[in-house]
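Known limitations

Structure tokens in this collection are predictions and should be treated as such. Users comparing against experimental data should check residue numbering before alignment. To illustrate the layout, the record for SnoaL-like domain-containing protein is reproduced below. The input appears on top and the generated tokens appear beneath it.
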Amino acid sequence: MKKLLDIKAIAQRYIAFSNAVDYESIADLFDEDAEWIPISPIKPLKGREAIRTAYLNQVKKVNKPIINDKYFADGFTCIVEFEVQIDENTIAAIVDVFTFNEQGKIIRLAVYKR
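Generated tokens:
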């Protein structure tokens, strides 16, 4: 019998790596041909190495801890709602929509600001 993927656990690892500012490990969660659709003004990218470079050169500079994360998983999709404390008076509400392949790699990550 084929083992079912725990996509929620993979998404939780992504969030933990983000909070640890470990973007090398985040990039390793992506499939080689993954698609990444971040919040504007960062441009969408395709391919693990392009995504890795963007995390290291763009996202790392503005990283803030993720708090109040909630996970909703079904099939190969996991939605994560969370908040980021931008500054003392500002909290941003974000939604990440992960799509995984059968190997448990992220094939698409779309990020939305609520």
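For this record: The domain at 7-113 is CATH 3.10.450.50 (Nuclear Transport Factor 2; Chain: A,). The longest strand covers residues 77-87. Please report discrepancies through the issue tracker.
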